[in-house]
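Researcher: Next entry in the queue.
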Amino acid sequence: MKRIYLLVGITLAVGAVLGLLGSRMLSAQEPLKSGTVLQRTELTSAKGTEAILVLRELPAGGESGKHTQSGNEIVYVLEGSLTLEVQGKSPATLKTGEAFTTVAG
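Model: Structure for this entry, 105 residues:
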């Protein structure tokens, strides 16, 4: 009987740790999924695609985590600074007024 209580306790502890880690990862991604759509237009030279201008505010110290994009992205730093880390390249610090692009995948 004590063995069952031990297994249940370990299962609950592991579940709590996994839940905490999962929620932290989701909250880090959350600012990237939200934002204010400022403009949206169909690209006439690429039928079936569109360009979307979105304003996203990331909290100080926030991060997007390792991820890929489903399309091309142009990012402009409106205020503050950020560190861009791209696999296979050295980290780059971008400040207010600077921009960078990413490609799909």
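Model: Residues 2-102 form one domain.
Researcher: Noted, moving on.
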